[in-house]
């Protein structure tokens, strides 16, 4: 913080030129990212410079950012120093088409958030971006009690906290939408829309009733028996 990650006040004090502001990207943290929903207001900005900024002359057109970063040259440890971020991810993951952002370590329950605006995150988050399946449909499934149960037993737990690793996440069996389950899929998408609408108006709104409907539909989608549902519900209460 204070080097390549800046507060609104720090950004204002830099008096950046128009072209310099293009390098500033909104970065979101766990405080912003809730289950289903990301609060659009970002508290921080990141100077998003890729490996091309390893060139010492790369900042010549960005005098105010250069002056700022030059003050920290003795503490910057990036492999892409003097001006590049360490392992900057491709920006396509943070912009453009809708995607899901998920914290790798979650307190109490997994949290998968639907995002349809520019949202940069650190390596402590997964970014799921796909054209193969409706992203809101996928958001509903991933936030269900069924998938929480899957991640609890296929992944790692630290007490009651979930450590969501890549392998169990990639191995989640996602039901493909077809003519037989299209109605359920549409209902799930509509429920996610409702949750997002409610949260947009009041980020602290209680959406448990809508989430319960999603859980019931996901059980139906995966053709679970009453006994299997009881196991999942009981496990989730423990």
As a percent range, the share of strand residues is 5-15%
Q: Give start-end ranges of low-pLDDT stretches.
A: none
State the strand order across the main sheet. Answer: 1-3-2
Distance between the termini: 38 Å
The residue-averaged pLDDT reads: 91
User: What is the tally of helical segments?
Assistant: 9
| Spatial shape | elongated
Radius of gyration based on Cα positions: 21 Å
Counted up, domains total 1
Question: What's the story with the biggest beta sheet?
Answer: 3 strands, antiparallel
**How many beta-strand elements?**
9
H/E element sequence: EHHEEHEEEEHHEEHHHH
Structural class: alpha+beta
User: What level of helicity do the residues show?
Assistant: 25-40%
Organism: Campylobacter jejuni
Protein name: site-specific DNA-methyltransferase (adenine-specific)
Keywords: DNA-binding, Methyltransferase, Restriction system, Transferase
Domain TaqI-like C-terminal specificity: 26-174
């Amino acid at each position: 913080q204070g080097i390549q990650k800046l507060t609104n006040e720090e950004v204002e004090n830099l008096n950046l030129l128009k072209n310099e502001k293009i390098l500033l990207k909104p970065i979101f943290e766990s405080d912003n990212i809730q289950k289903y929903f990301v609060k659009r207001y970002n508290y921080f900005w990141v100077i998003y410079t890729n490996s091309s900024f390893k060139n010492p002359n790369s900042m010549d057109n960005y005098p105010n950012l250069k002056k700022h970063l030059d003050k920290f040259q003795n503490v910057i440890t990036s492999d892409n120093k003097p001006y590049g971020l360490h392992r900057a991810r491709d920006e396509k993951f943070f912009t453009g088409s809708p995607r899901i952002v998920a914290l790798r370590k979650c307190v109490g329950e997994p949290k998968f958030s639907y995002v349809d605006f520019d949202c940069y995150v650190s390596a402590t988050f997964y970014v799921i971006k796909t054209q193969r399946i409706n992203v809101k449909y996928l958001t509903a499934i991933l936030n269900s009690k069924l998938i929480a149960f899957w991640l609890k037993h296929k992944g790692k737990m630290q007490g009651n906290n979930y450590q969501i690793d890549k392998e169990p996440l990639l191995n989640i069996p996602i039901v493909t939408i077809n003519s037989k389950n299209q109605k359920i899929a549409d209902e799930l998408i509509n429920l996610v829309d409702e949750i997002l609408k409610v949260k947009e108006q009041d980020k602290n709104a209680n959406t448990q009733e809508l989430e319960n409907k999603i859980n019931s539909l996901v059980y139906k989608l995966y053709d679970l028996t009453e006994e299997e549902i009881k196991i999942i519900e009981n496990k989730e209460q423990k």
